[in-house]
Amino acid sequence: MVSLGKCATGVFSNNNDFCHQFEQASNLSKERIWRMPIYKENIEEMQCSQISDLANIGKIRDMGSSQVAAFLQEFVEEKPFIHLDIAGTADSDSRGSGVMYG
Question: Do the beta carbons of residue 39 and residue 67 sit within 8 Å?
Answer without folding.
Answer: no
